[in-house]
Description:
The chain is mostly beta strands.
Amino acid sequence: xxxxxxxxxxxxxxxxxxxxxxxxxxxxxxxxxxxxxxxxxxxxxxxxxxxxxxxxxxxxxxxxxxxxxxxxxxxxxxxxxxxxxxxxxxxxxxxxxxxxxxxxxxxxxxxxxxxxxxxxxxxxxxxxxxxxxxxxxxxxxxxxxxxxxxxxxxxxxxxxxxxxxxxxxxxxxxxxxxxxxxxxxxxxxxxxxxxxxxxxxxxxxxxxxxxxxxxxxxxxxxxxxxxxxxxxxxxxxxxxxxxxxxxxxxxxxxxxxxxxxxxxxxxxxxxxxxxxxxxxxxxxxxxxxxxxxxxxxxxxxxxxxxxxxxxxxxxxxxxxxxxxxxxxxxxxxxxxxxxxxxxxxxxxxxxxxxxxxxxxxxxxxxxxxxxxxxxxxxxxxxxx
Length: 384
C-alpha cells in the first residue's frame, strides 16, 4: 500500500461514499495566445537590510566595464519551455550572452537573476523564448540602457558600528556575493548556451465533491486532482477555492479557507516538519519530477474555527465585520438556498476551474450548527 500524508484530518469528515464530479476547466487555463511578456529588467546593487545583505534596485544607469547583477521578470510563461537572454546594441546586433538563474518555481511567471558585464556603449536586453512545441520567439525589453563611467555603488552599512561588528557585516556581504557568483558559474558551466528551462505542471483528473460530515451534512468543498511536475523543486500546488456569488455585492463578504490536505504518494520524511507545515498552510513543498501526485484539499467557511484537539468547531462570525451593510449582506447569504458554484484555482500553474451547482454557503452554516458548532465568543481561540 502506498503511503499517504494526511494533515489534521478530522475523523468526522469522511470521503467514503462521496460522488466526485469533474471540475469545469476555464478556457484561461489553456490560453497561451499572448505568449510570454518580458515586463521588467532592473539592475541591482547590494544593500544591507534587516535580514542581512541582499540586492535592491539600482537607481540610475549601470557602470561601464563592471559586472553587475540584474533581475528580469517574465509573465505568461505557461507555454514556454526555455529562455535565454542577450544584450543587443542600438542597431540590434549581438553584444553579449547572459547567464541567468531562475529564482522562482511558477509556470505562470518567471523571475531571473542575471550577471551582466556592462558594455561601454548603450544596449538593450533581449529574451529568446522557445515554447513547449519547439517554436522560437524574441522579446526585446523597451528600455535603452546608457552605461555611465565610474565605480560601482558602494555598499552602505549602518552608521556608528563598532569595528568588529562592521567586519562581520562586511564578511557576510562578501559571502553573499561569492555564493551568488558560485551559483552563476555553476549555471554557466551546465548551460554554456545560456538556456534556462522553466518548470511546468500537468493537472488532470480534477474533481470536486461536497465535504460531508459523518452524518452526511455538507460543511464545505473537497477538491482533488493529479499533478505531475516537469522538474524537481519546491512548488505551491495547493488550490484556492472561493464561492462565486451571482450577486456581486456578496463577493468578498465570506470566503473559504483550507482545512485539511492529503498527498499520495507521501513526501519524503522531513524531521524539521517544514513539508507538513507547507501542505497545511498551502505553501511550497518539495516535489519530485515525473511523479503523479494525487492532491486532495478540504475547504470550509473562513469564519469557522476548529479546536486544537480537532474534535469540534465554533463560528467566529465577527470576521464578517460590524458594518450594517456587511451584516445585511451576510444575513442574505445565510438565507439563500440557491445552489452555488465555487471557483478553483492553482495560481502558480495557471489552472482555473469552477464546480457545478453545490450547496450554498448558507447551508454550510446551518449544517455546522447541526453538527454542534457554537459561537466562538468575544475572544475566539482554539482551546475549546
